[in-house]
Amino acid sequence: MKIDGVINSPICGVIVFGRTFDILHVCLHARPNTVPCLWAFFYSHIQTFFAFIIERLKIWFLLVILALSMILANQVCAEVLTLQHGQRYMNVQKHFDYIEDPKGMYSFDAVSGDQENLSWIENAHSGLNLGYTDSVIWVKGIIENSSLKETVYMFEIAYPVIDDMSVYILRDKSSEKLHMGDKVPFHDRPVKHRNFLIPVRLNAGEKVTLFLRVKTTSSMQIPINVFQEEDMTAKAQTDMLGLSLYCGAMLMMVLYNLFIYFSIKESMYVYYVFYVFFMTLWATSLNGISFQYLWPEATVWNDQVIIFALSGIIFFASMFAARFLDMKQAYPVNYRLFLTLPTVSFVMMMSAYFIPYRAGISFAMIVAVVTILYGSIITLKRLADGFKSAWVFILAWAMVLCGGVVMALSKFALLPRNMVTETAVPIGSVFEVALLSFALAHRLNLEKKQRIEAQNIANIHERHARIAKENELLNERKVRAAREEALAVQKRATETLENKILERRAELNESLNKVRMTHDKIMESLAYARIIQSAMLPESEDFVSLLPRHFIWYAPRDIVGGDFYYIDAIEKGVIVVVADCTGHGVPGAFMTLIANWELKRIVKGEKCYDPGEILVRMNRRIKKTLKQDKDSAFSDDGLDVAVCVFNPGEKNLTYSGARIDLRYIKDKKVHTVKSDKRSIGYIALKGDYGYKVHHVNIEPGMTVYLSTDGITDQLGEKTSQRFGTNRLNEVLTAHSELPLALQCERLKETLMAHRGERDQVDDMTMVAFNTEF
Questions:
Q1: Cα separation, 363 vs 343, whole angstroms
Q2: How far is Cα 99 from Cα 116, in angstroms, rounded to an integer?
Q3: 585 and which of 280, 558, 643, 771 could share a cystine (Cβ 3.0–4.6 Å)?
C-alpha cells in the first residue's frame, strides 16, 4: 500500500500482491458471465489453466514481493528525471507516476494542486500498460535540466493510436498546454511525427512538472521516451529503416505473386496478394505511418481502419487457406463450417466504419485466433492425408499465430509492452508471407512436374502412333495430301484475313482523321471562348488608372476557367471583386459569364456599393437564374466571392466575403479578415442569408490581397501536401517590402517550385493593390 507517495511497509506489499492474485482468480471465473458468448467460449478454455498456475505460483510471487518491498521501503515513488546535454535516446517511464480517473472528473488544477488526497501509483516498468479501460489516466513526472545551457528535449509517446491526450508543462510561474491524439488532425501536431512528440524547452538548471491526461478506446499503453531535439532526425531515420524494410518486403511479395497470378490465372494468388496487402495496411496503421502519409485529416477512419484491415486479413487468409488446402474437395462438411469465419470477417470489414472500436477490435482478435486455430487443425489433417505442401503451410500459420497471440496478450495487459510484443506480428507476418510464397512455389512446381510427366506419357503414345502410321504408307500419303490441303486452306484464310485487316486499318485511319478534325474544331472553339472570357475581364488600363500600384495573377487551369475579377470606379472610391465559380473549364467559364453579368447589373445598374448587400443580391440573382429557388432545381452550382470597396478619401476599406478571405500587410505582418463560410448560390443556402461587412482603417503603405483557393489547394510534387494558407502568408510577409510586380513573381516562383511536375489542380487568381497613391 502507498500513502503520500511512500511505500509503508514490506508486509503491506505482500498483502496487496496476494489480494491482487485473488482478484485476478475471481475475475477469471466471473468473466464468462459478464461478456458475450464468444468471450465465454474463449475464457472457458483458459480459466482452468490460469487458476492452476495462480494457485501454484502465488507463494513464490509473495516471497519475491516481500524481498522487493523490504528493499524499496521508505523510498519515494518516482525519482526526479534529471537530464543533461548530450543525453541519448532512452526510456524514462519509470520516472513517471500515474493515477486512474474512472469518471474523467479530475481537472488539471485538481491534479497539479494539493495532491494529498490523490494516490499516485509508481510505475516500475519501462512502459505503462493498463490494457483496455474506460478510465482517464493521468501521468506525472518531474524533469530537471542539469546542463549549463538551455536545451530542448523531445518526449516521445511511442504509441500512435492514443485517441486523446492533453499535455501540461507546469513551470514555476506559468503553464503550457498541448493537445494531440489520433482524433486530432495530423497537421495540428506540434511536431510532425508518427508518434506523439512533446518539445520541452528547459533553461539551465530549470525544473518543470509534466502532466499527461490520456483517454483512448484502444489499449491503454503510454510508453515514454526522451531524446534531444538534434537527435530527432537520426531517430526518425532509424525508425523508418525497419518500417521501410517491412513494407518493402511485403510489397515485393505482392508484386511477385501478382505477376504469377497474371501468368497462370490461379485464384488463390488473388487471395494471397490481398491478404499481404491488408496485413501491410494493418501494420502501417498501428505504427502511425498511414495516418501520417495517407489520411492525415481522417481522424475517425484512422481508428476504424485497424478493424477494417484486421477483418480483411481474416477474410482473405481464410479464403486462401480453403483454396490452397483444397478443403472443398477434401472435407466438404468442414469447408462449409469454415466459411462462417470469412463470412463474419467480411461483414465486419464492410461495417468497420460504424462498429465501436473497443468492441470491434476485441471481436476481430478473437475471430483471428479462432481462424488460425481452425486452419491449423485442418492443415494437420491434410498433412496426415499426405498433402506434401501442408508442412510449410502449417509452419507459416504457426508464425503468425505466435505473433498474434503475443500482441493480443500485450493489448489486454497480460504481457508488458516492449519491442518484442510490438514487433511480434510484423515479424511473424514477414516469415509467414515468405513461407506461404515458398508453399505456393512448391505447389506450382508439383503441378508443373505432374504436367511434365503427363506430357511425357503423351509423347510416348504419340511415338507409338507415328511408328504405326509409318507402317501404313498409303495412309501416310492420304495424311500428307490432307495436310497440304489444310495448308492451302490456311493460306487462303490468311490472305482473306490480311485483306480484312487492311480494310479495317483504312476504316480506323478515316475514323482517326475525323476525331482529329473534331478535336481541332473543339480547340478552336475553346480558344475563341477564351477570347470572349478575356474580353469580359477588366483591361489592365482600368487597374492602372484606378489603382496605380497593383498586380493581377490570373492563371486558369484549362483554356477557360471558373475564376474572374472585377474593378470599377464608384462614387467614393474603387470596388474590387475576386470570384471563384463552381467547376473548371467550360462549365466554370459559363458560371463566370452569369456571375459577372449579375455583378455588373448590381453595381453599375442598381448603384449598390455596400459589399454585404452586393453579396446578398448576387445570391438571390444566382439562385433565381439557376432556378435553385424551385423544388425542381437540378443545378447545384455557385461561387465564392470577395467584395472590397476602397475609399482613399476617408482612409477606409469595407469588405464582405463569401468563403474568400481578405489579407492585408501592416507593420510587415499579414492580417486576415475572415469571410462568411457561406458561398453564393447552391440549393442548400437560403436566399435571405446576410453577409457580414468588415471595416478596415487604411494607413499609408498597406497592401491588400484577394485570392481564390486554387493557390492554397495546389498539391506539391514531392510531399503531395497543399501549398496551404500558412505558406502563402509566409511568402507574402517575406517579400512585403518589394514592389508589387516583384511580389507577384516571387509568389509564382515559390508556388511553381512547390508544384514541380504535378498538374495544376484548380484555377488560380490573386489581385493585390497598395493603399498609397
A1: 14
A2: 13
A3: 558
